[in-house]
Write a structure and sequence with these properties.
BirA Bifunctional Protein, domain 2, alpha+beta, single chain, 9 strands, two-stranded antiparallel ribbon, 2 domains, about 425 residues, 15 helices, seven-stranded mixed beta sheet, Helix Hairpins
């Protein structure tokens, strides 16, 4: 008859139930005897005393049997299924060897150490034990739990190390290989326009001035001769923050600030490029776009000065063959006012759908500074005159590079931006 650990436990339990039932719970005695037998086992191992001629007395074989006997008896006192414990550890070892992923390890941990795990089940009969026995059983189960935990943690570390080695291998760089060509970036056409506009006016003695995008109603409208209730305010479709503050609809507010800040009232030559905001969003308009406005205040400034400046500006930005025309118009902050058209970049002035068969496209608005604006800026209109102009930087970029839709400027598509490399500009602008 073959014996298993489970059968041996069952045999000893049945034997003591018949002969010495009081001994079944004598845990302390069995533990002390186990220690004694381990000492005797150590001694016979030192002497290498083996069983001969069927005589087992005082041999390694005898002492191993005694050790096993008391181990089984201790297990019986706590209702521990030793065979199940052995199976748990063996199964765990086997399953750990097959684990290759972290998730599998998580599931395995739950299987053995979870609320309904195999190790936890060993305490199922704890409710039937005394307080002292519960304490001792808990300690033994905790030892097993700690060992299982250590085995799982060790496997986790091994998996992490394997993952690290895999990643390092994948990311390994062969320094002997030729280097890859680094793709050169491209400056945005909007930025190019700003730089070229600034270069042109700086070369003519203008200052480049900046101002806040969150502006007061006074600087954005009132000091530009657009009082409260003026219809132009409705046409602007302004983004108001409150009754006093708004997102500037034009960089002209910087002109108002510059005139106020010039306490000595000396001549002014300035441009103010920057972002402005309006409630527009279609192929030719954006709710946020770039604008550049210029202001000249000096003595004996005439409309001829304005005309000459803008003609030079248009030809510089759009090419020497660009034609320019001036049309009378109206703006609250200039008097007289003009609108400036340039020959259509698509048809060269011959007429096409883009220019509505006129051969002209509006570029900017301009005019002589209104006396009221000069007066509110602290300048005597009897002594000082000036001119102002403004255009959209986005519109200027569209004309210069023949861009059909303003929204292309805000896509940040590399394929789009690459078209505007400096090396190509000579071919694009003639």
């Amino acid at each position: 008859m073959s014996l298993t650990v489970g059968k041996m436990q069952k045999y000893l339990e049945e034997k003591y139930k018949r002969t010495k039932p009081e001994e079944l719970k004598n845990t302390q005695r069995y533990f002390l005897k186990l220690i004694e037998e381990i000492g005797e086992l150590a001694e016979v191992i030192r002497k290498n005393q083996r069983m001969e001629d069927g005589n087992i007395k005082g041999t390694i074989e005898e002492e191993l049997s005694d050790v096993l006997y008391y181990v089984l008896m201790i297990a019986n006192t706590y209702d521990i299924n030793l065979e199940k414990c052995f199976r748990i550890k063996e199964e765990l070892n086997s399953e750990l060897e097959r684990v290759e992923k972290r998730q599998e390890l998580v599931e395995l941990k739950a299987k053995y150490l979870g609320k309904k795990g195999l190790v936890t089940e060993l305490t199922a009969n704890m409710k039937d034990l005394s307080i002292e026995e519960k304490k001792e059983l808990g300690q033994l189960v905790n030892l097993l739990k700690n060992e299982v935990t250590e085995m799982i943690n060790s496997k986790q570390q091994a998996l992490e190390q394997q993952e690290l080695e895999r990643r390092l291998k994948e990311e390994e760089i062969d320094i002997s290989l030729p280097s890859r060509k680094i793709k050169r970036g491209s400056r945005h056409p909007f930025q190019r326009i700003i730089e070229d506009v600034e270069d042109f006016f700086v070369s003519m003695g203008y200052d480049v001035v900046d101002g806040p995008e969150l502006e007061t109603d006074e600087n954005c409208f009132q000091r530009l001769n657009v009082p409260l209730g003026h219809p132009a305010r409705d046409a602007q479709d302004t983004f108001y923050i409150d009754e006093e503050y708004l997102l500037r609809t034009q960089t002209s507010s910087v002109q108002a600030r510059t005139m106020q800040a010039n306490t000595e009232k000396t001549p002014i030559r300035m441009i103010c490029p920057g972002k402005v905001y309006r409630r527009d969003d279609d192929a030719t308009h954006s709710h946020q776009f770039g604008q550049v406005e210029g202001l000249v205040v000096d003595k004996d400034i005439s409309l001829a000065d304005l005309k000459g400046t803008l003609e030079m500006f248009a030809k510089k930005m759009l090419g020497e063959n660009t034609k320019v025309r001036f049309r009378p118009s109206f703006f609250p902050f200039t008097e007289p006012s003009v609108e400036v058209d340039v020959s259509c970049f698509k048809c060269g002035g011959k007429g096409c759908p883009l220019c509505k068969q006129t051969g002209w496209i509006e570029l900017l608005g301009a005019g002589m500074v209104h006396p009221n604006v000069l007066r509110m800026g602290g300048y005597d209109p009897e002594k000082w005159t000036g001119f102002a102009f403004g255009t959209g930087l986005d519109r200027l970029a569209m004309f210069r590079y023949a861009i059909p839709d303003i929204r292309y400027l805000y896509t940040n598509d590399v394929r789009f931006l690459e078209q505007f490399d400096r090396k190509d500009e000579e071919n694009e602008v003639k």
